[in-house]
Write a structure and sequence with these properties.
Largest sheet of chain A: 5 strands, mixed
Order of helices and strands of chain A: HHHEEEEEHEHEHEEEEEHHHEHEH
Shape of chain A: elongated
Oligomer: homodimer
Helix content of chain A: 25-40%
Strand order of the largest sheet of chain A: 5-4-3-6-7
Strand content of chain A: 15-25%
Number of strands of chain A: 14
Chain lengths: 380, 380
DNA sequence: CATTCTAGTAAGGACTCTTGCCCAAATACG
DNA sequence: CGTATTTGGGCAAGAGTCCTTACTAGAATG
């Protein structure tokens, strides 16, 4: 609506951004290389590098080009610009890393958690890991990107408990937990959403800007990617499909999660799905197994019908502990391809996609933070 | 990822854009007013106005300021910059307008169509209306924005027929139909999507960036607004909910459109809903009416459960011929507020929202087209 | 050692935006 | 009616950014 006000300062900031982004794509470059890469003239690049070096964002590495011609100085991003914390929290444990603006991982800490250890223990594991990582890197932890195996409130970043859905990690506020260790923003999202982003970047949905990722594990979730971005909805609860109305046994309409309750596939006195029992059934051969399979296929079909109706994806990606059980995807595909609006189904291909997705975002976020550091504060 | 290359030309283009946008918000302004409004200095504005006047985009109106001080010259957008065609096509008729870059409507043409007139007749009505409007405006019709009462293919802009869903207007390719009369792009979308955009701009969902608009009329449709934008999905068919799996009579799972077939509420030998019969039943008092109402409420509830699960809206807007029947929304609300994830329901408030929505988009698009005319072609 | 090739620098020019000042023109007021 | 006030507009000077061209420095090649 209102275009930005033109100013010479803006041009300079743009030049600096070009230089910084080049050095984020390539760890070390001479000024001539930056010039060639950006299309900006050599003198202008020299100016910018000088400015950025004075500001401490860029350093002369001391290395020189070899080969014909005069030796050029390699520049790179200053070490000490800091790193981002990436962490994935599940009821089984916490995995944490530190990544720098180049995308290099500087260390990984894995902490296993006992079953039903609870959110306090998870929080402690997270802070400990963050402190350890903070010691390993030259600068500070400037931001954190967290993947959690529970629904996440979009405003606050807290994990939330939805009725009749499992609360796997439990009541946790990563932003508060990390307040002392991480200086900047803490971004939190659902593991399924991160997984979908990872598959979109480099997995089976690469370049597909509209797809749906269905996660079938202890919890039931899905990510909706529309116009290339995971859509989280007002509260961040888009894709929480436990209560989606679908077809249960005998063609009765019921909530998705209900189907598992009726089939006796929930963990005792819990709303989480009994994955071992379910995989056992999916592998079984008896009449009973056959019946359960067909009920599940129809129930999943109902969920997919909803996803197709509301999101019109180009494809559906299926992941999760039991979603990848052999035979399940073909069975669902066979059923779904006979419905009025079939859509291709694919199996998720990445391992630990939630960490991959969160890591990519952490790098992006850290990079844009550094770019903003170069520009003087936009008035105040 | 790759920031734009800085250049002085870019600054100038930005200044010009500031000037043009100012004159799009306010029909006439002096250079001093533009300067004050944009925060750009007077000499710079004078330069830009001179440039734009030479290019024929801006003209001195000849009017002068009155009041204290020296009289200033009022400038405005040049007439003859052209207009955009806005049209809404339904099986009942075609409504077409021409709007200019200031949002002024330059004429309206309404053509009634006989029932089942078919797409050829609608196409003729559209071209005739476009030709008439083209004669009434100073410049050319530079683009068109079309609302159609059928699903629209996102790639081609053609109306498409989905299985078991009514095809109200019928096979029509607005882009081809208008090729002779409109010089620029032809944007086509579903009437429900345009209505949702209108309610988002200025209706009951103003400022709500995540909501779902449920249209209950002859056809069943819905629009999903996420992060402030209507999400159309890969093929433009997001929101086509005829086959969404929901609860029918006796709690049986079935497609949404099936429910109406079972209840005998479809028009004879058609997949369109019999709206008169339905409104009659909704107003009725007998036991039969009661039963139908409760079935409908549950069926709609199932659809809303899907929308809430997948899109997490802040609110649900209900519109359409029978969606606004007295008593329906409260009944659905009473049912839905007892489900695990209730969301506020509201009635749509705008009249002919599809035209309003399309008009707003036409103005935006025409404005950005004019802005692009000011900038020299980005290399070629 | 001369040649060739490349990185970096210096000078000059073109362009844009801003500040400050002055002028022109119209109203307000004595 | 004449003067003060107020506002739009134009001009000049200055600072800043980027680009082109030409030149220098330095390293490998022959």
């Amino acid at each position: 609506m209102t275009p930005p006000k033109p100013s010479l300062e803006m041009l300079r900031a743009l030049t600096d951004e070009n230089v910084l982004r080049s050095l984020m794509d390539h760890p070390r470059l001479t000024r001539a290389e930056i010039s060639a890469r950006t299309g900006i003239s050599k003198p202008t690049i020299s100016d910018s590098v000088q400015r950025l070096a004075r500001a401490g964002l860029v350093v002369d590495t001391g290395e020189r080009t070899t080969g014909r011609g005069r030796a050029g100085s390699y520049y790179s991003l200053a070490p000490g610009l800091g790193a981002a914390l990436v962490a994935a929290i599940t009821p089984r444990g916490v995995v944490a890393e530190a990544v720098d603006a180049l995308g290099h991982v500087h260390g990984q800490v894995r902490t296993a958690l006992e079953a039903d250890a609870g959110p306090r223990v998870a929080a402690d594991a997270l802070t400990t890991a963050a402190r350890q990582l903070a010691g390993k890197i030259p600068g500070r932890l400037r931001l954190a990107v967290i993947s959690a195996a529970d629904p996440v409130d979009r405003e606050t970043g807290r994990l939330v408990h939805l009725p009749d859905a499992p609360f796997l990690v439990g009541d946790l506020d990563p932003s508060a937990v990390l307040a002392g260790t991480v200086t900047g923003p803490v971004l939190v999202d659902n593991d399924v959403n991160w997984a979908a982003r990872a598959e979109h970047r480099a997995g089976c949905a690469r370049g597909v800007d509209d797809f749906v990722y269905l996660h079938l594990g202890e919890g039931l979730g899905c990510a909706v990617v529309n116009d290339g971005v995971v859509r989280r909805g007002h509260g961040g609860l888009a894709g929480e499909i436990a209560h989606l109305c679908t077809a249960g046994p005998d063609g009765r309409a019921m909530a998705f999660t209900e189907v598992f309750a009726v089939l006796g596939l929930r963990r005792p006195s819990s709303t989480a799905i009994d994955v071992p029992a379910l995989t056992g059934l999916l592998a079984g051969r008896g009449e009973q197994a056959e019946r359960v399979r067909s009920v599940l296929v129809r129930a999943i079909g109902g969920v997919l019908a909803a996803a197709v109706s509301l999101a019109d994806p180009r494809m559906v990606v299926i992941g999760g502990e039991w979603g990848l059980c052999p035979g399940l995807i073909p069975a669902v595909d066979a059923y779904f391809s006979r419905t009025p609006r079939p859509v291709p189904l694919t199996a998720a291909v990445l391992s630990s996609p939630e960490l991959t997705g969160a890591r990519a975002r952490a790098v992006e976020e850290l990079q844009s933070l550094i770019v903003r550091m170069a520009a003087p504060a936009p008035e105040g």
